[in-house]
Design a protein that fits this description.
Strand order of the largest sheet: 1-2-3-5-4
CATH architecture: 2-Layer Sandwich
Distance between the termini: 22 Å
Number of helices: 3
CATH topology: HIT family, subunit A
Shape: globular
Number of strands: 5
Helix content: 10-25%
Radius of gyration: 14 Å
Bound molecules: guanosine-5'-monophosphate
């Protein structure tokens, strides 16, 4: 686990390791998850290395908003809007977080159950 510092996503942002990028702006990047749990599974991340929403601060509000809008844009681009989809962010160990760089999972292309396990 890598808390508070550089992560594998930092390497993806800097293009040091490859990723299937589907969306990019000055502050936001979206790429396909390497281990998809559904037909569409995309991670939307801030380029700023915020650990999770739990450590985000007031000055991050704008980029957090951009992330949500990017998630919707990505889902639209993947054709998920008619059937619907899920946007989720895992926080900490109990939340199931394994990469400590904030990311929204955009998951879709199959029906999903609730609550998650
Ligand atoms: P978390 O468990 O932290 O919410 O989600 C981390 C996600 O990052 C997982 O779904 C995992 O498959 C994905 N992931 C981990 N390493 C890489 C990588 O190197 N490339 C890509 N594209 N996804 C990764």
């Amino acid at each position: 686990m890598n808390h508070g510092g550089d992560t594998i996503f930092g390497k993806i942002i800097r293009k040091e390791i490859p990723a299937q990028i589907v969306y990019e702006t000055e502050r936001v990047l979206a790429f396909r998850d390497i281990n998809p749990v559904a037909p569409v599974h995309i991670l939307v991340i801030p380029k700023k290395p915020i650990e999770s929403v739990a450590t985000a601060v007031g000055t991050d509000a704008e980029v957090l908003g951009e992330l949500m809008l990017a998630a919707a844009e990505v889902a639209r681009g993947e054709g998920l809007e008619p059937g619907g989809y899920r946007v989720v962010t895992n926080i900490g160990t109990d939340g199931g977080q394994t990469v400590f760089h904030l990311h929204l999972h955009v998951i879709g292309g199959r029906p999903m159950s609730w609550p998650p396990g």
